[in-house]
Structure formats: structure tokens, C-alpha cells
Amino acid sequence: MIAHALTWRRERRVLPGFGLSLGISLTFVSLILLLPLTSLVGQLSQLSWSQYWFLITDPRLLASYGVTLFGAAVAALFNAAFGLLMAWILVRYEFPGKRLVDALMDLPFALPTAVAGITLATLYSSNGWIGRLLEPLGISISYTWIGIALAMAFTSIPFVVRTVQPVLEDLPAEVDEAAMTLGASDSHAFRRVILPYLWPALVTGTGLAFVRSLGEFGAVIFIAGGKPYETEITSLMIFVKLQEYDYAGASAVASIVLATSLALLLAINLWQGRFIKRLHGGRG
Amino acid sequence: MTWFSKPRSLFTASAVGLALTFGALSPAQAQDEPRELLNSSYDIARELFAAVNPKFIDWWQAQHDETVSVKQSHGGSSTQARSIMQGLRADVVTFNQVTDVNVLADAGLVAEDWQDRYPNNASPYYSTTAFLVRKGNPKQIENWDDLARDDVSLVFPNPKTSGNGRYTYLAAWGYADQAFDGDEAKIEDYMSTFLGNVEVFDTGGRGATTTFVERGIGDVLITFESEVNNIRNEYGKDDYEVVVPPVSILAEFPVAVVDEYAERNGNEDLAKGYLDYLYTEEAQRLLAGFNYRVNDEKVAEEFSDRFPETELLRVEDVFGSWPEAMETHFASGGELDQLQRR
């Protein structure tokens, strides 16, 4: 009896009972995550395997995979570099307006993506403020793959900054000072001491940014141009199928995006688990 | 001590709350609410129905001595049709696509014979596809064949996502069918050059307008004649010119009562009255003011200077029927997909 009471007291948490909280969480997970997914699978089940294969290997769709993957990859790499730099500045330096810059980093999450898309398209089109300067150099951004990557980078930058920032905050400046007193050059200290420490966070952030870019519709659609085989992104193809009342087809294409994203997220998680084990000297 | 820490005041507060809730739900008050009609319409009709609805409310008041209100819902007409199938309880639809009303008829929400229930295929007004070119018409665009020239670039919405774009495609095909006397190979040749000249495919009509006007892309914007004239009024009569080609497509704007929902909402008579109203001289004059062509002879005569004479091809005459046109041209792997393949 006493032992039981003790365990109960030790297990006491701020939130009431495990059973209740798990129940509520699972209900919400089912309602907002699993149920929509189930209906996706439900739509898919109307298709035979050969129909499914035919749908997802349509040449125009294949081209859109290419455009989307390439755009997302460029955006993710750009964000990896720029996001790391941004996080570094926000953590390691004090400057006037730092709080403001810090808050601005979340803006892409707050701004409706369609507004972002239209704004970018306006700025970078051949008569826009920035596009006008690039036009004589023969660079056009709006309605080309660069515009697509740009819009994707805009909407996904917070993922990198916000995952790297807290990790960097935990890494005291003394660590790089110690590395230097031990004779490491700047680049050596960065590559061998700081980067390995940030690596898991950076990869996670970049991965999330990439996955987000794969499914982005609102921001990209206004700057993409939508030319078949050139600037059509996969989410536009889903939209097209929906306009044709082709729910099964839309679900088929959506399933590809979903599978790619899930596989990538899973891979990052697995890799991170192994990386952390190795970092802590565990075997395997 | 704050008020909510006392159990008794908490009780009082909830009792008041309950009373208020039930008070609001009491039938006596519900009867005082005017009847409300929901019109589900296409994207670019916002201004149009904002002007029509107050006039309709007056008209209904005068005829039936009842004050009603009209709510609007706007969106791409396929999206609207989809919402209605998923439960948006609209009483009437005023679309820009015959196919989107057909979809509702197939779902049993609209009567099978909806096109016979009102005059002119249940289309109280119509339009056609026209061109907007830059000042002075520098590229000398007069007809559809000019749009397939090497030095001309075009902007119109994606036929895959926009009814507006679909009409443009069908109009170009209709022209080519006449010009090449039905020679399939020549028509396809023309069409693929025409489609290849498109600089940007936006998802909707207003997006294409923005691309052409604000971004300065393309030599020609192809969209509804009504829209072309509105843009010219909006963005400056001196900067743009309207070209109505000698042959183009008849774009119908079909209307229907969503019987299923109108009945459930208790709005059958109101819904029918709303559509009847669109055919009255007063409403036709309003519609013509928004650059839509109308059938009312008197009004058509008054506005004749706005609408150049042009041969309007009917989708049914050139393509058999809407379902056939959709199947042959716009379905996955259809003619449009073939033409855009490379």
C-alpha cells in the first residue's frame, strides 16, 4: 500500500493522469493527422496498381518531380549556409536591433504564403525593383527555376535558423577559444570543433526545410510561371487533378510527395540517432 | 477576493450565460431573422453581384413585401462546385462553366434538365474571348493567326486550372478549325505553336491579368471580353487597347437552382426569383454595364457600341458537347496534354 502510494507520488506530473492525457493526445492525432491520411489511402484504393503506376509516371508529372526536387534542393542548401550564418550572428554577437532581426526570422511562418509569393514575383519580375537590375545581366528570376527556389527558400528559412540557434546557444564561446589556444587555426576550429557539434541540428533543419519546400504551393505558384515541363511544380499538378475532379489521381500524386517526405524525415531521424550514439562513444 | 472565486457568483454567472444562450436560440427570435439566400459564384464576379444583390433585394421587397438578404461565396467555379458537393449549402449557382453545373447535376444536387429551365441555355448573360494589347498595338494583333507568330508572346490562364483558359483554348481551336477547314494536322500544328507562345500560365484569370499588367509580361493578354474592358477601365484607357477577333467562342455564364439545398433551406421560391430577376430588363442593364453581353433586345441595342459584331462559335457546334470537349481536349492525356508534350 505504502509503496504504491509512494510510486504514485513520484509519478505525479503537472498534467493530470497518463491515461487521460494520452487519450486526449491520441484523439487529436487521429482527428487532425490520421483521419485525413486515411481518406487519402481511401481515395488511392480506387486505383489498381497499373493505373497508379500509369498516373505517377506521366512524363509531365516526372518533369514536375524534377523541377520540385531541384528547386527544393537549391533552397535547402542555400538555407543551410545562410541559416547557419544567421543563427551564428544572432547567438554570438550583440548589436542594436538584434531582437528585431530575431523576430523577423519567424516572419515567413507568419506571412500568408500567397502574399510572400506575390511579393517576390513583383520584386523579381523584369520590371520589379530587383528584377530590373538583373535584367540587363540576362538573369531573370520570376517565372524561372530560380524564382521557384527563391520562394521555397523564403518559406523554409526559419527551420534552419530555429533548429541551429538553441544548439549554438549551448556551445559557449570558450570552446572555440580553447581550440585556438591549443593551436587550431580559425578554419580548423570551425571544421573540427564547431561544425561537428552543430551538424545534427543543421542536418535536421536543412532536412525539414527541404521537406517543407517539396509541398509548398501558395508561395511558389505565383512565381513559378507554370509552363509544362519547365516550371510546373508537383503541388500544381495535384491542384490540376483536383480541378478535374480527379480525386484518385490527386491522391496518387500526393502519395508520392508524402512518401518522399516521410522517407526523408525517417532517414534523418535514424541517422541522427546513430550520430548521437557515436558522439557519446556508444558502440554501433 | 475576486468575483469568480465565490462559488455562488460562479453559479449566477453560468445561469446568466445559459439564459443568454437559450434566449438567442429561441424560435421567437429566429422568425424575425430575414431569409437568407446563398449565391455561389465564380471568382471575378465579386463586383458584379455586389451591384446586383441590393437591386434584387428591392425588387423582391416590391413584389413580395418581404425583406431578404443575399450572401455571396466566390472562388474558382470548379472549387465552388466541389465545396457544394461537400456540403456548402448554396441555394443558387452562377458559374462561368457549363461543366461545373453539370458536375452538380451528376451529383443529383441540380436538376438534370437545368439548361432548359431558363432562357438561352440558362445563361442570363454571355461573353466571349478577346485580346488586350499594349498601347498602339505595336505587334499589329488583329486575329488568332497573329497569336501564333514567332515574335508574339502570350499570357492567358492555364486551361487545366481555369475555365477562362479553357475558353481561350477552345476559341483558338474553333478559329483554326474554320481557317484550315477541319484539317486536323494543320489545326494541331497551329495549336502547338499558339500554346508554345505562352510566356506564363497562371492558375486563374485575375492572376494572368496581374502578370500582363503589373509585371509587364507578354504582348497579348487573352481573357473574357468583359474582363478585358474592365482592366482597360481600371488600369488606364491610354495604356491598353482591346481587340475583339472576328471569330471567337461563345462563353456562357450558366445559372441554376441547387434544388437539393434550396428546398432544405426553405428558399425554393427565393432562389427561383433570384434567377428570374437576372433576366429582367433592369438586371440586364446592370450586367451590360459590367461589359457582359446580354440577350434583352432593348438593352443590347442601347449598349451596341460597346460590343463589336463578331462571329461566336458555340462549343456544342464545334466540339459536339461540353462533356465531349472535356474528354477529348482537357482530360489527362487528352489533346491539350498531347500538344504540350515535347
Care to give the gist of this entry?
By secondary structure, chain A is an all-alpha fold.
Structure description:
- The complex is a heterodimer of chains A (284) and B (342).
- Chain A is mostly helical and 284 residues long.
- In chain A, 78% of the residues lie in helices and 0% in strands.
- Chain A folds into two domains: 1-45, no CATH class; 48-279, Orthogonal Bundle (MetI-like fold).
- In chain A, helix 7 (113-124) crosses helix 9 and helix 9 packs antiparallel against helix 12 (218-224).
- Chain B is an alpha/beta fold and 342 residues long.
- Chain B has two domains: 32-124 and 253-306, 3-Layer(aba) Sandwich (D-Maltodextrin-Binding Protein, domain 2); 127-250 and 310-340, D-Maltodextrin-Binding Protein, domain 2 (3-Layer(aba) Sandwich), CATH 3.40.190.10.
- In chain B, the strands form two sheets. In chain B, strands 4, 5, 6, 7, 8, 9, 11 and 12 form an eight-stranded mixed sheet that branches. A four-stranded mixed sheet of chain B has the order 2-1-3-10.
- In chain B, helix 3 links the parallel strand 1 (35-42) and strand 2.
- Chain B is globular and about 65 Å long.
- The N and C termini of chain B lie far apart (78 Å).
- The interface between A and B is medium-sized, with 30 and 28 residues.
